[in-house]
Design brief:
- The structure is a homodimer of 368-residue chains.
- Chain A has 368 residues and is an alpha/beta fold.
- Chain A folds into 2 domains: 4-110 and 198-220, Peroxisomal Thiolase, Chain A, domain 1, CATH 3.40.47.10; 126-195 and 222-367, Thiolase/Chalcone synthase (Peroxisomal Thiolase, Chain A, domain 1, 3-Layer(aba) Sandwich), CATH 3.40.47.
- Chain A is built from 12 helices and 9 strands.
- Chain A has helices spanning 21-34, 58-65, 82-95, 129-144, 148-162, 176-180, 209-215, 243-256, 273-282, 288-300, 311-315, 319-334, and strands spanning 4-11, 46-50, 72-77, 101-108, 200-208, 220-229, 265-267, 348-355, 360-367.
- In chain A, helix 2 links the parallel strand 2 (46-50) and strand 3.
- The longest helix of chain A is centred in the middle third of the chain and has 16 residues, at 129-144.
- Chains A and B meet through helix 2, strand 3, helix 3 and strand 6 of A and helix 2, strand 3, helix 3 and strand 6 of B.
- Strand 3 (72-77) of chain A pairs antiparallel with strand 3 (72-77) of chain B, so a sheet runs across the interface.
Chain lengths: 368, 368
Amino acid sequence: MNKVAIVGTGQTKFSKNDADVEKLLFESANDCIKSVNNYDSNTIDGVLVSTNNNSKYLGAILSETIGIQPKISHSIEHLCSSGTNAIISAYAYISSGMLDMVLVSGAESANNPGQVLEWDKSRGNLEHPIYWGTMLTKSHKRKFKTTEEELAIVSAKNHKQAMDNPVAYSNQPRTISEVMNSKQITDDLRILDCSRSCSGGSTILLASEEKAKTISDQPIWITGIGQKNTSASFSKNNLEEIESTKIAANFAYKMAKIESKNIDVAEVHDAFSVCELMAISELGITSNDKSGEFVRNLFNTENRMINPRGGLIGAGHPLGATGISQTIEITKQLQDKSDKRQISNAKTGLIHNMSAAGTSSSVMVLQN
Amino acid sequence: MNKVAIVGTGQTKFSKNDADVEKLLFESANDCIKSVNNYDSNTIDGVLVSTNNNSKYLGAILSETIGIQPKISHSIEHLCSSGTNAIISAYAYISSGMLDMVLVSGAESANNPGQVLEWDKSRGNLEHPIYWGTMLTKSHKRKFKTTEEELAIVSAKNHKQAMDNPVAYSNQPRTISEVMNSKQITDDLRILDCSRSCSGGSTILLASEEKAKTISDQPIWITGIGQKNTSASFSKNNLEEIESTKIAANFAYKMAKIESKNIDVAEVHDAFSVCELMAISELGITSNDKSGEFVRNLFNTENRMINPRGGLIGAGHPLGATGISQTIEITKQLQDKSDKRQISNAKTGLIHNMSAAGTSSSVMVLQN
């Protein structure tokens, strides 16, 4: 397989306002194009759009609005992990030698579809993700003795970290006490335990090894990829684990020839507080029974290793943009360009993005 | 690049009835799985869905309904050429070595979105494809002296050929006179000049060279791929040509190391009668000024070289399934399994699929 690098990044601000998905795609793509050296519109031969929006032909529309005529353009949808699916599809096009340079642009408006799990009849009327969020939370508390305070620390940490992310949805620090006293939504979830749907656009430019050198001083390499889809319906899941994440991580580590201990910084899919604890456990960074303590220690020592941009809870969750935004954060960390959020000497980073109660997961390893 | 083969095919009947897209995906995927030797659900590591339907997470839903747990699953949308975009994406995953075996399943219900060109503000109220169909027709008549009878022959030929396609939407032969006297829709288009939106599902299974041998006695190889996206809006197009098709064909011929004269059988995107004349010209099979005569000769000699299954006009046009159904036809022709539709001694076949007034095109060359 040919090597594939990330050579450009662009983002819009994440916000609660509704916005045209076409406009968000354009703005983040334009920001991405401006980030590269020696831009030549003729060299981009692929445009992939990641969204849950129902508009059609967005790959062609984005191509026309930014003034390029790619060979390949199309849209990709896989709910909350549409973004990493689009990046990995672009990786395949470049790695196979079919394309040289692919723009991957994800966007979502706050009111877009994909936020309610309409397809899963096994849920009855419990379509909203908070229901599986609360079931996972209840199970984690019971099985691993996780406390409400430990769960609240995830949110307090990610809100705090989001304060240094200029495109984050949240611009308020939240204390542990504020999280624990925020509005109760279900037995086990309060409003500040939940990521928020919002509007936002994120774009990255991927390139072959040969092209990467012409366009970026600091290409970041995708060295590990793992994906797994275990089911579509929550009823098939074991509440105590996210099997798809464990399997995807093992594929990615094997491909990158690393172990979990080599990870310097990670963006993980904290759709709800409990998801961060489960994700870092499935990824092998800690274990479920020690995950609460692990995050408490990060918080107390101001260690931003997990979700430095604020995760989905702090930065917001514009579905189709999320996986791309996570990838941008890890790219900038490995380029030593993360300003106040910077993890010192980050060499190996990880992205974890999942869909629909963890019924599918994508894991990517990036290295500089 | 690793070689990629088509090793299984499955289809539903195309019909005017509304149908659940999940059911069409399942039925055609199930039919595809039954078509292979030594089926083992564990060997399918990718599931790509092609559709304009607004349902989300269909890759995971299809995977669960057919009982597989792939690494990668997602949906792909690019209007009328969603199907070939999904096949070519699967090609990239396999060719790069990332996956071994990918199921590509396309489906559309008759009332699905994607049939009206909402995005193109340059069209004013002329959103329906018949408006660009009529403009291309008017231009072809004026520039190339194409007659109404020659245009009617395209439809009569394709309706006739569809009679021998058991899954076709149309089951009626139509004489040239019937076409020329059918209901007038615009200045230059009658109802029988138009392909019909309909319900239908089509699935193919793609495999790496190593896996292909274990699962098929007659793998058919994808030897050429070309794609091009020139714009999103019709206003940018020259009415006398489909530039994206010409460019895509040249890429595909170069990759397959063939010339247009080597093509034994082709499925081309006859959204309207004039599109078949323009497509076979852009593909280099004939020229625009001789295209009417070329098709008349095929019709008079009962030569099924172009659109043997009846094309979009005869077989119907379930958007997300169309490109896959075209590919199934060429696969079966090269396997000598097309019954009454069979072109004798077909060795090299071509698929041409396009979107939105030809603003993007996919061309694939298959060989046995």
